[in-house]
Amino acid sequence: MEKIPLKFTYDIAPILLQFLKPDLDGSLEHNTLLLELLYIIIQKTPKQKDGSDVHFVEKLCRSITPFTNPRYPDVIGAYTYRIIAHLHSYQGLPEIIKALGITSVPERTLNAVDGQMDDTLKKTLRDLNQRLSGQGPEGQTIDHHEEKKKKKSLTNYVSGSMKATADWGVPMSSVAESCSADESSSVTPFLSVTETKTTQRRWKKSSVRWRTKLEKLASMGMTEVKTVKNLTYCINPDYLIARGSDGTEVFLGLRDDGTEVAIKRMTKSNYQLLKHEEEYLRLPELESKSIVRYVDFAEDDNFGYLVLQLCEYTLEEYIDQNNHHLPKDIQERMDILKTKVKEVLLSLEVLHNKDTKVLHRDIKPQNVLIDIRGKARLADFGISRRLNDGQTTLRTTPAGTKCWKSREVLEEDTDSGFKRSSDIQVAGMLIYYILSCGHHPFGKGIRCEVNILDGKYNLDLVEDELAKDLIEWMIQAEPSERPGVEETLTHPYFWTSDRRVEYLTKVGNGTEAENFRRTDERLLRELEENTKDKTFHNWRDKFPPDIVLKMDEKQRKAYPENTLALLRFIRNLYEHHAEDAEKIDLMGLFPDLFPSIYKFAKAKGWNSRPSLKKFLNVS
User: Fold this and answer.
1) Separation between Cα atoms, residue 20 and residue 33, nearest integer Å
2) Are residues 372 and 312 in contact, defined by beta-carbon separation less than 8 angstroms?
3) Closest listed residue to residue 44, CA positions, set 81, 83, 77
4) pLDDT for 22
């Protein structure tokens, strides 16, 4: 059989243990099958060279200890000791096994094995018995020189045994009964061991923001924390990092393997949203660097727990200028915010993909998280829905957060349903929110949703004309007029300087620019009106004189001082004088040239021409 990944074992072992029946009247066949399966899994799980699996193995050992009680059927004891024999080979486990009171394999079990089991199992249990009694497999005496030094530390291992057993689903009452004094048992009682005041948990340090609190959590005593499955968290308000309107609470937490996590907790009477979110996060299609990573799910008698990748901030916190997460330099800040815009759209692309077909339905600043590397990830899929094959519209109860709903969701009298374009409009609102550092394009307060319905918005706090163009496109009142997410990602706002220059040369190759000396006067006036007071006014003075002279001589006549002539000048410069063109930073020389020409070409319908259309096509 191939090796079994450690992550799979981490997930499946606690589940198998929960289904074991520790009561003495439990099903023999049921328990035998589960113990056999558990043995196969741990046997095929490679040991970790760095010892990162030791804590997990300790908990496993403690959880199966009750089944060594001789009052269980012989076959149950045999299969339990076989697992212990395998665990005995892990570093530090012999001491823990001894501390749990397992000092030998009962003679009754060995005799039963001799009469009923295969030779391999017989040898395994007899070798284990020799090791437990102080001899190696060949009968050698084991050196006990360090025994006294270890004795004190062993009690620390045992202190968590009762708790670990309960954590993995074995009732405490059954454990107590199984481990009570019994003349024929080789397991000595350990209930009287006093719990240590603190426990140093495994902790893989990653977070910067939460480091101090996680350090405290890693060393808290067992009475100060809550545990469920392989999770540890603290319900002290200092460790509550978020709270939802639906009763959800999010706590800092640690997994047994040391991973830092966010634990989303909801009461079982109202945790269907949590299960629903887990269902989506476990979709293979959502395994992406753009989506908050699913880690695990657990539940107890009162709560459901969705375990997620721990992030540093919400988008709302990140762009709040009072928190000083963004650089003071304006250009640096805008570059970072532009990156966040693209990351949000990439996360939406994962959802809207033709194979994924997921509608988020609750896009807002609080549902975009910033991870330790500063990357934006979309989160919270509690009210998300998935379209069926061929379906484009979801007809269901309106959902979302106030001021973060699409127009069609707000319109009670319509039956337009929820589409990908509904997410797009709200994403457009979010892009403005990002670039304006916290403002909403439709205003705030009671007027916000009215303005969404009326299509009244204000984009004045965003200076970038291309960003405005993208936002306006996305927040169109009519769903059919909004772009798909793939189209937003190919918008000129995200183009490189080289791509923008190439676009300008193609416009300069058009009929209008080619005939710049005898163009239609009306078109020329319209273009000049749209480009008034721009950096490329008097453009001839901005280029190096020697290049202008060379280009004029080539034409045998000076280029006139208008925008069409400039476009033809650029086309000829890059087409016929590439070496000279490389010396010029065209986008730095005229930062507003490309946005002005793009928007004019768009208004005139030029972008639908084959030479320009290819720039805007979704690949």
Assistant:
1) 10
2) yes
3) 83
4) 62
Contact by Cβ (8 Å): 392, 430: no
The CA distance from 537 to 308, in Å, is 54
Taken in order of first residue, the domains within the chain and their CATH numbers are: 6-178 (no CATH), 211-310 (3.30.200.20), 315-492 (1.10.510.10), 496-616 (1.20.1440.180)
Judge contact between 8 and 44, C-beta under 8 A: no
Q: How far apart are CA 339 and CA 467, in angstroms?
A: 12
Contacts of 431 (CB under 8 A, 6+ apart): 341, 344, 345, 467, 470, 471, 474
pTM metric for this prediction = 0.68
- What is the CA 615 to chain-centroid distance, rounded? 32
Residue 178: per-residue pLDDT: 43
Is residue 363 within 8 A of residue 373, CB to CB? The reply is: no
Nearest CA to 72 out of 186, 183, 178, 182 is that of 178
Query: Would you tell me the crossing angle of helices 54-64 and 6-19 to the nearest 10 degrees?
Result: 20
Distances (CA, A) of 43 to 82, 278, 384, 443: 10, 30, 40, 62
Paired strand residues for 401: 404
In the DSSP assignment, the letter for residue 404 is B
Assigned token pair, 58: 């300790």
Q: Which residue stretches of the chain have pLDDT < 70?
A: 1, 22-27, 49-52, 113-117, 135-199, 245, 412-416, 618-619
**pLDDT tens digits, 154-184:** 444 444 444 444 455 544 444 444 444 344 4
Classify residue 154 as exposed, middle or buried by CB count within 10 Å of its CB (0-12, 13-18, 19+): middle
- The CA distances from residue 476 to 33, 365, 402, 452, in Å, are 61, 20, 19, 10
- What angle, 0 to 180 degrees and rounded to 10, lies between the N-to-C axes of helices 465-474 and 420-435? 150
Three-state SS at 122: helix
Pairwise CA distance, residues 287 & 284, whole Å: 5
- Is residue 241 a contact partner of residue 252, using CB atoms and an 8 Å limit? yes
Cα–Cα–Cα angle for 215, 216, 219, nearest 5°? Answer: 90
- Phi and psi at residue 49, to the nearest 5°: -60, -30
CA 258 to chain centre: 18
- pLDDT for 581 equals 94
Q: Tokens 């990140």, residue?
A: 318
Determine phi and psi for 523, rounding to 5 degrees: -65, -40
| DSSP percent split of the chain into helix, strand, coil, nearest 5 | 50, 10, 40
Structure tokens at 361: 């339905």
Q: Quick one: residue 351, left, alpha or beta (phi over 0 = left, psi -120 to 50 = alpha)?
A: alpha
- What pLDDT does 99 receive? 77
